[in-house]
Amino acid sequence: MLGWATIKELGGRLGATIDDAMADKLSSSPDSERSLELINSSMRALKDRYPPEIVDAIIKAVMEADLSMKPAGWRQIESLSRDVFERLSTNNTFAGEPFDEFYIRFKRFARWFRAALEAVISLHGLKKEDIALDNPAIKDYLIELKELPSRRLGELSFAYRRHGYDTLSHQIQALLDKYMDSVITRDNCRAIVNIMNKVAGHPGYFKAMGAEQKLIEIKPLLLALSGLQLYSGKEPEKADLLAALSILLFNVFPSQKLLKLMSRFEPSPKNDELLYDHCAIIAMNYMLLGRLDLAAKYNERALSYAHDEEKRAYALILESCIHLSRKDFDKAIAALSRCSSVAGDKRMRATAQFYLGIVYYETDRLEEAMECFRLSRDGLEDELDAMSACNNIGTCAMLQGDLKAAIREFEGVEYIGRYMTGNTAKSLMSVAYGNLGIIYLNMMEYDRAIGYLKKALKLDKDTHDNKGVANHLANIGLALEARREYKLALEHFKSALNISFMCDYLEGALFSFSRIERLMALEGRFEDAEALKQEMARRNPGISRMLSE
Known about the structure:
By secondary structure, this protein is mainly alpha-helical. The chain folds into 3 domains: 4-127, no CATH class; 131-136 and 395-400 and 418-549, Serine Threonine Protein Phosphatase 5, Tetratricopeptide repeat; 148-296, no CATH class. The chain has helices at residues 4-14, 20-28, 32-40, 44-47, 52-64, 73-89, 99-123, 131-134, 157-163, 166-179, 186-201, 211-217, 219-230, 236-252, 256-264, 272-288, 292-305, 309-325, 329-342, 346-362, 366-378, 383-400, 403-416, 423-442, 446-462, 466-482, 486-502, 506-522, 526-539, 543-547. Mean pLDDT is 82; it is low at 130-141 and 144-165. Keywords: TPR repeat. This is Tetratricopeptide repeat-containing protein.
């Protein structure tokens, strides 16, 4: 049976390092013998295959191995196992057994040993986990503003709210008058104006509509576009109306095919207003599709047609988003700085500051990020945008370790959104509640942590955010584990694991499995954990490699 001195050294070689103080506390604990038995039981992974003398030889070879030139992580386990295998093979210990079979068993032993040792350390409260940074992935929680520049394919509401949807409306109305009755029927012209008014006055009207109903609604637009293409005239107004109607059609029924169609219908060379709209919307959607070269090309053209500060500012924000997608942070900062200098509108400046905060955040400049988010909040009139800014300030404070400041910001989100019921508000509230839960979990106030996490869980269930549900279930499991309610904690981790699989959230699945494995190790249920691991690999073959790292 291995003693604490051997376990301490072996742990360092197998990826579960404990220091002298931990080892002393474990050895002097009243539960020392029980803990030793638990850790030693992990050697079943070797004893099931090899006789005691060979198991002892394996452990001795591990202790004598030179780790100075070996890689880190599980690659070190592979290298270490090969070293042990080759050393013991010289005296025919593994005669006839291939290395691959030995490696499977050795790797299983290393994982079981580490799970058992970490379970014992956790049980004795000897290691404080850095929960705030590691679970959930807090850096994924940085929230973008509601519509800046766009969350989904085809959203135009921000662009038109800034420089006025009336610009496009007036152009379409005037052009329809020119072609009414000759190319486009009077009824279709009226129907198109009706569509345009719905887009301008009720931005969510078409978003909530099913595909079949949309096809019925856009029939007048399709007939008008078809008639114009068949019309033989070459005048500039024809090109302008084709471009304007294609933009309107795309706003109602966004798709990649319509994006290609819209790019074909370019306005006449002298119509800068329409050329700006045409290029800006194409640039935005190519960016969302990840076609960044095309996005940059069209956005550069949009900037050249932007003759007022709002349009220039919007194009510069879009340029910064393209640079961010390319991870070119210096150029993103330059574009946003230009935007801030040209924008006279308070909300536009706030937008530039908000995105500048995101860039600083991505480059780990948290102080500057927080200051930008604070400046942006002062210029944001929409309550949902203000909630986003508060969440981001709280996230930065949380990562800096200023938990009191973080709590103030997240409670501010709760205050702003207390009477709001929309899905966006629920998502923002969930982020605030989830982070409050993490903070109180880190402060070891487990009842408060569970209370906030349950609130976040309910909101994410309402909005069908499965990744969020998995994170909150896992965090509740952590709080229950800390309260030593192991059976209930295990149920939450298993639920988090299943939901993570359902939404292909591999990081969540791996985290949940690691906690399940640890809890099962407390009961010596190594085989059950191994069976669960094999089931995970069967359900998602791509996870096998991640489980070994």
